[in-house]
Amino acid sequence: MTERMLNKYQVQEQVGLHFNTITKKSKLGEFPKFIKMNNQKFWREADVDKWISTQFEWASIE
């Protein structure tokens, strides 16, 4: 089974954050790490989905 990879536009659409914010959070360890291929950044869809679900968990705790 192959993992689905998301490019920066797909990630922006899914999480509702600007690409620069996503990259910054990724480098700070606050967002899943990206994988660089052919000078482009990609994220594993499963990692992004998991991150989204944890954001909802934090929102319900506060």
Question: What does this entry look like structurally?
Answer:
The structure is a single chain. By secondary structure, the chain is α+β, with helices and mostly antiparallel strands. It has one domain: Multidrug-efflux Transporter Regulator, Chain: A, Domain 2. Helix content is 56%, strand content 18%. It contains three helices and three strands, in the order βααββα. A three-stranded antiparallel beta sheet has the order 1-3-2. The radius of gyration is 12 Å and the shape is globular. The mean pLDDT is 90.
Give the helix/strand layout.
Layout: E1 5-7, H1 8-15, H2 19-28, E2 35-37, E3 40-44, H3 45-61
Antiparallel strand pairs: 1-3, 2-3
- Would you list the SSEs in sequence order as H and E? EHHEEH
Q: Which secondary-structure class do the elements indicate?
A: alpha+beta
The assigned CATH architecture is Orthogonal Bundle
- Quaternary class: single chain
Tell me the strand order in the biggest sheet: 1-3-2
Report the span from N to C terminus: 38 Å
What proportion of the residues is helical, as a percent range? 55-70%
The count of strands amounts to 3
Beta percentage is: 15-25%
Radius of gyration: 12 Å
The CATH top-level class label: Mainly Alpha
Point out poorly predicted stretches.
none
Number of helices: 3
The gross shape turns out to be globular
From the 3D structure, determine the CATH topology: Multidrug-efflux Transporter Regulator, Chain: A, Domain 2
Number of domains: 1
Integer average pLDDT: 90
Main sheet properties: 3 strands, antiparallel
